[in-house]
Amino acid sequence: MSLANTLRTALRGITANKLRAFLTMLGVIIGVASVIAMLSIGNGARAAVESSFRFLGSDSIQISAAKTNKNGQLVDAGKILSFEDGLHIPENVPLVNRVDMSLGGSGKIRNGGTVLDMNIEGATQDALSSVVAQDQVQPVNWPDGKQLTPDALIGQGRVFTLQDVLSYMPVCVLGYDTADELFNGDNPIGRVIWVNRSRCTVIGVLTELETIDPSQRYQSKPNEGLFMPISTMINDFYTKEPSVSIIAHVSDESRIDEAENQIKAYLRQRHNIQKDANGDWQDDFNINTKKDILGAQQAAVNTFATLLAAMASISLMVGGIGIMNVMLVGVTERTREIGVRLAVGAQRADITFQFLIEAALISLAGGLLGIAAGILAIPLAASYNQGLALLDPNSIPLALSVSLLTGLLFGLYPALRAATLIPVNALKYE
């Protein structure tokens, strides 16, 4: 029996009862749609993790103070990670050529009768380079594909220099909206404002910024805030020196592990850290590279994504069982037809192939409809996952292949059962 004739026979068998065929497909449709949607959620979660640590480049090492729980509060586990610690890293660690330090806080900013509660960030002279590296904001109407530079973020004046940081200069750079609210459109450069109880001279204003991700533009406020030298912030706002966050940039990415060991040795010497009785270092700081952070985060995300895919696969299995049940019913209903075909010379392989083709067509049609339903369901899935869902193009052929394989596997038993019917008994069946 030719393939064309087998296909026509299989199609007649399916279309003879369209409602039953559709209900059979329904399990596959739901299963495939679930696989597509769940894999998209997993991909979105992976992308979110990558985005969260976009600021940490492959040449960067993040250093932070270790914390411990004391009476229900997180406190430094040992000595603080100080501004001085970070300042002297480049001269003591040969593989580090630059260090960025930051310290976040909030306070009141005042000019005349205008008072604003605002985020304040203490940073080193490369603060705008870090903003560019994060790849989250850009000037309004910035041309697509054009390289963003730190200078492009400055609307008026300048950013503070290394000398300003080392000299504890009371200078600051304002966000676009912050400057407008404080000075009502007047030129703020050179004007003195009060930050908490300290005087500060405005030396720069950032250009008007927007988030690169359009979905975040109504949630973030990139034009509000104030930057100042981290040394000035520590000196003026803290009675007790706080721990700072440090990002060290290495001169050779291929030697980042060696640089990490050099930083550990330097900090252990500065903090007078010794080994315990077991020979382990009792470090009071944490050191991570992008590889370390993403590795741990992605492992958790991959476990989550695998669990979601496994849950969705259960729907496909249920769909496969549905195909098997309906095919078995079909074999029973068409027993006399099978007997006639066997009696007039049809081979058992022809009967097996016909029923396998029917199962494959049902699962394939269900898979195609499931893919369409899954793609349409991605926005809904994203709304329940903080907008995080990305379609992986590779998931479409994967889902289609799995649905086809499901139909063939669960259709095999009914096909073999049909092929092994005894013609004489089949012809007598009522």
How is this structure best described in words?
The radius of gyration is 33 Å and the shape is elongated. With 430 residues, the chain is α+β, with helices and mostly antiparallel strands. The strands form three sheets. The chain has a six-stranded mixed barrel with strand order 4-5-12-8-10-9. Strands 2-3 form a two-stranded antiparallel ribbon. It folds into two domains: 3-51 and 296-428, no CATH class; 79-283, no CATH class. It is 51% helix and 19% strand. Helix 1 (3-15) crosses helix 12, helix 10 (290-333) crosses helix 12 and helix 10 (290-333) runs parallel beside helix 13 (395-419).
What's the average pLDDT?
A: 80
Major β-sheet strand ordering: 4-5-12-8-10-9
Shape category:
elongated
Number of strands: 14
Unreliable residue stretches: none
Described by strand count, sense and barrel closure, the largest sheet is:
6 strands, mixed, barrel
- Measured on Cα atoms, how large is the radius of gyration? 33 Å
Distance between the termini: 27 Å
Secondary-structure-based class equals alpha+beta
The helix content is: 40-55%
Topology as a string of helices (H) and strands (E): HHEEEHHEEHEEHEHEEEEHEHEHHHHH
The total number of structural domains is 2
Count of separate DSSP helical elements: 14
How large a portion of the residues is in β-strands, by DSSP E?
15-25%
